[in-house]
């Protein structure tokens, strides 16, 4: 059971058992905060943390976790790969509205949303994209569609009672990552990582998790009446874009897998991914097939998508705390169990 000192400020991390949420919780402890974690499943233990289990769509579950809290970090979401429109709307849109109302009821003054830089991404190149870019008019999936609605709701709720800010990370990686690195390795193990999509020269942001955490915490600390951060969105990246296929190749070589040597034109593979998606849709009543190369993944692998952090640097003094090379090294070290045993 967590012991609390009266002088410590308490923060609540919604989705705090997830990849990013747990890193936020651990860094908050390091920086001297008391921490509540709220999640639908409790997947780890830590004597310093007070855990609350529940669905964020239920006010009565949320309220005990929000009492007397200095700041709330909202990083719960269904995984981006869930192909479930109803679930995304229920959690990301309705659940976020319920959370905002609960924060107000509990008297919480600061709410930090984990949004995504992809809210402006439509599958076409973005080079040094700023927060001034319009939201995607044609979001590439339900995940992106509901992240846009979620961000608009949170920023629209900014008021004297509840100050809000949205952090837009991109391509988060690091220890305990359940998405990027495991998907890359699973694709390599399945023998599907033989070809690069496009010419391999598309620059992309990959962001080490501790930098994303740092962006969230400094935003929360700045979030008070009169601050420029109130009601605004902020890109948070490593500020060091890298060729998509160089990044993936570094993870693959680090874990002793072969890297792709040949390339297929982007338009060809995108068209094939569209066709595969269409056939999966037709076959859905009979069988559920989850293709590795969805149009979204192909677009993410073959286009430029990197973003400017200038606004975060200016308004909250943001600078990455872990350089990209170090982040890659720490990540590879954290996944010894995914090393290729066949070499
Ligand atoms: N990973 C990335 O590259 C990026 C992520 N983001 C955003 O960052 C945030 C965190 O992502 P990440 O840590 O990778 O994701 P995770 O899936 O690791 O974490 C999300 C957590 O939220 C929990 N959760 C889901 N639904 C509910 C609910 N109804 N009530 C309470 N808890 C719930 C999940 O539980 P369970 O696992 O049981 O579903 C999980 O523990 C998300 O908002 C995501 O959109 C933004 C940009 C990039
Ligand atoms: C071609 C192939 C199989 C690559 C494997 C890596 C991918 C799993 C990642 C490459 C870019 C990543 C990314 C996200 C998820 C993982 C990747 C597709 C997000 C969609 C996660 C959620 C977001 O908010 C945006 C991210 C963009 C980049």
UniProtKB/TrEMBL annotation:
Major site of localization recorded for this protein: endoplasmic reticulum
CC per GO annotation: endoplasmic reticulum membrane; lipid droplet
Keywords of the record: Acetylation, Cholesterol biosynthesis, Cholesterol metabolism, Endoplasmic reticulum, Lipid biosynthesis, Lipid droplet, Lipid metabolism, Membrane, NAD, Oxidoreductase, Steroid biosynthesis, Steroid metabolism, Sterol biosynthesis, Sterol metabolism, Transmembrane, Transmembrane helix
Molecular function GO terms recorded: 3-beta-hydroxysteroid dehydrogenase [NAD(P)+]/C4-decarboxylase activity
Catalytic activity: 4beta-methylzymosterol-4alpha-carboxylate + NAD(+) = 3-dehydro-4-methylzymosterol + CO2 + NADH; 4alpha-carboxyzymosterol + NADP(+) = zymosterone + CO2 + NADPH; 4alpha-carboxy-4beta-methyl-5alpha-cholest-8-en-3beta-ol + NAD(+) = 4alpha-methyl-5alpha-cholest-8-en-3-one + CO2 + NADH; 4alpha-carboxy-5alpha-cholest-8-ene-3beta-ol + NADP(+) = 5alpha-cholest-8-en-3-one + CO2 + NADPH
Keyword Transferase: no
InterPro entries hit by this protein: 3Beta_OHSteriod_DH/Estase, Lipid_A_modif_metabolic_enz, NAD(P)-bd_dom_sf
Annotated transmembrane regions: 264-287
Domain of life (superkingdom): Eukaryota
Subunit details: Homodimer.
This protein's name: Sterol-4-alpha-carboxylate 3-dehydrogenase, decarboxylating
Lineage: Eukaryota, Metazoa, Spiralia, Lophotrochozoa, Brachiopoda
